[in-house]
Design a protein that fits this description.
Blueprint: H1 12-34, H2 40-64, H3 72-94, H4 109-120, H5 123-132, H6 138-166, H7 168-186
Helix pairs in contact: 1-4, 1-6, 1-7, 2-4, 2-5, 2-6, 3-5, 3-7, 6-7
Length: 187
């Protein structure tokens, strides 16, 4: 199944691979959300918001792709990576403080939207580059959004199980994972 003749996404398998890679940011952050006491309904809402932003970012990238240069991908990836480094470091150090606060408060709508925006930043340049290739496929964007939502839900569910098994060490590990993922994006 060919998506577009000249596109980097030329098959369903490459689309799924790229969508899964884009969903890994959401998975990492969702692990930390799952470490907190959170209901399944709230997990579903957060997953939907993350999926929605993973729809909006590549869509907006596709729409304005012919007007922007490809260097924008470096800027958005850099910003997203720096944000993940700071979130990861904050999680690591706050795990050892008993302040009762978390870097990602799943009960605060603005923080949920902020996190969803941050983890979807890297999907903007993907949409941008696909827009430069002339792609206008909603199937591509919907696939990216759906997989991002599912990986986020999986992260929250796994985070909840890890919290019950490992306590404060799981939050420390979550912070380290997010920090390293951010560093990887920087280098």
């Amino acid at each position: 199944m060919s998506m577009h003749a000249d596109s980097p996404i030329d098959s369903l398998s490459s689309l799924i691979f790229i969508a899964f890679a884009l969903g890994l940011d959401g998975f990492s952050v969702s692990l930390s959300i799952g470490l907190q006491k959170i209901r399944y309904r709230k997990m579903a809402l957060i997953g939907i918001v993350i999926g929605l932003f993973h729809f909006l970012m590549p869509f907006s990238g596709m729409v304005i792709g012919q007007f922007l240069s490809i260097q924008m991908s470096e800027i958005t990836s850099l910003l997203g990576s720096i944000l993940l480094v700071f979130i990861g470091a904050y999680m690591f150090f706050s795990a050892w403080k008993d302040t009762g606060s978390h870097p990602v408060n799943p009960h605060h709508p603005l923080k949920i939207v902020s996190v969803a925006f941050a983890v979807s930043l890297d999907s903007f340049p993907v949409g941008l580059s696909l827009g430069l290739y002339g792609m206008k496929s909603f199937f591509v964007i919907l696939t990216i959004a759906f997989i991002a939502m599912m990986t986020s839900l999986a992260g929250m569910l796994l985070g909840g199980k890890a919290k019950r098994l490992f306590g404060v060490y799981s939050e420390t590990l979550g912070g380290i994972v997010i920090f390293l993922f951010g560093l990887k994006g920087l280098f």
